[in-house]
Amino acid sequence: MNKVFGAIARYFKQTDRTLFLFSIVAALYGLVLVYSATLYYNKGGLLNRTIIVQTVAIVIGLALMILISKIDYHTLGNYWKIIAVLSILLLLYTFFRGKGRAGSEDRSWINVFGITIQPAEIVKVLFILTFSKHYDLVKDDIASPKNVLLLGIHAAVPIVLILLTKDMGMMLVYVCIFLFMIFSTPIKLRYFAGGAIALLIATPFIWNKVFGNTQRNRILALFDPTNPKYAKQIFQQNQGISALASGEIWGYGLFKGPKTQSLYSSTLPERQNDMIFTVAGEELGFIGCVAIILVLSIILIRIIVDAALSKDEMGTMICVGAFAAFAIQIMINIGMCLRVLPVVGLALPFFSSGGTTTVSSFMTVGIVLSVFIHRKNLLFADSNDE
């Protein structure tokens, strides 16, 4: 027993304790909100499967976070080609065999031994790792058009595969991760200018051919929310805004929100998933929402700090990718709840229900902790070389 406690003490001495602990705080806070949001499942005495899945996902995610953090990210990076190929195969399988959720056009979910998972969430962590390693290998010749093109292809392959499954929200996350990471490199601005021009030219095609009717209407509804034509697309956000506003400063109290505790799921659709932020707003008020933003902000700040503390560019790049993954999902999810961004089905990291997204969030923190823990080994190695 003393050995176990000794090992735990040594781990906490090595790791970024703030990032570690606030990730757990976020997950536990989210679990309470998900429990409240799914109480209506239990009105007839039924077992709340969502809470069981969420609790198991937190335990698995926490274990993976610790395991990944203990492995040197350079060691993981040595297998980047194998990891990249496996990621592509997983996304290809999702394209051919994926299924969607009710009311959604995407096919981003697969069944594994009776468990439904979203592969793009897991591949997201692997993409951050493989892209960071790829850049680390070519950074000395980053001005070469060939290397820029290869990095672009590295990002384009998973983005296109996710696009083919019609998971626009996750595709946007990957695009933003790529942009954040590539902007942190010394690549010349002309490449970005060329990409911006290409995107501008492609915009009409994307709008008409890539976006479906539901996605276009969700965007248009934001500019004309009272138009009956868009009533179906804006209904979820209107209900969310109503719940948020009614909570005022302190909220109705935990487990007492009228919309959150309604017996009808349509009263506040996807309350445990996309709309978990509105659950906090209705039951815990403005204070509850600020608490969510504060906890997530601390996580983001610590990732930035760990990026600055990294002793090599691969570690910095990993942290930049992790920051981008969290930041864009936080911004879009809260933007959806506030009706300033269209609904794209993105979870709020650590807070929304969903086993895959919870495990993915912990894995993302795990790879950042690996950068923090193993920076010392690299520092000592540099000192010995001198």
TrEMBL record:
Answer whether the UniProt record assigns the keyword Amino-acid biosynthesis to this protein: no
Q: How does it sit in the membrane?
A: Multi-pass membrane protein
In this entry, which stretches build a coiled coil?
none
- Keywords, sorted A to Z: Cell shape, Membrane, Transmembrane, Transmembrane helix
Q: Name one GO biological process term.
A: regulation of cell shape
InterPro entries, per the entry: FtsW/RodA
Q: Does the keyword Disulfide bond apply?
A: no
- Write down any Gene Ontology CC term: cell division site
Annotated compartments: Membrane
Q: Name one molecular function that GO assigns to this entry.
A: lipid-linked peptidoglycan transporter activity
Spans through the membrane: 20-39, 51-71, 77-96, 108-129, 149-182, 189-207, 284-305, 317-341, 347-373
- What is this protein's name? Cell cycle protein
